[in-house]
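Case 91 in the screening queue. Each case pairs one protein sequence with one candidate compound; here the compound is zinc ion. For every case the pipeline is the same: read the inputs, emit a complex structure as tokens, and attach any notable structural observations.

Predict complex for case 91.
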Amino acid sequence: MTAQTPWPKGVIGRYLTVGRANVDITHDNPALDAEPSLSTAQCTGCGRHMDHYWSTHAGRYDNGRTGAERAAREWAQTHAGHCRALPKPTA
Ligand SMILES: [Zn+2]
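Case 91 output:
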């Protein structure tokens, strides 16, 4: 569980927590700056996850992926600085 571990398919960003788990950022459609747009941050230590959904219909104007990804990264950065949960060991 370090930066040397290959990133799972679809992960576009990874943050190391103080508990040495990862917060992984994924996106519903990494190839397109489409809208609506969903980025998800998932912590491998405590299991918390946060969806960041961007759409002009939700009253949040941005260019889809960029806004969703930025919000997900901000949450990941903050969570990584606080979370002390250890990742579940793999056999
Ligand atoms: Zn966590």
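Case 91 observations:
- The two ends are 13 Å apart (CA to CA).
- The longest strand covers residues 37-43.
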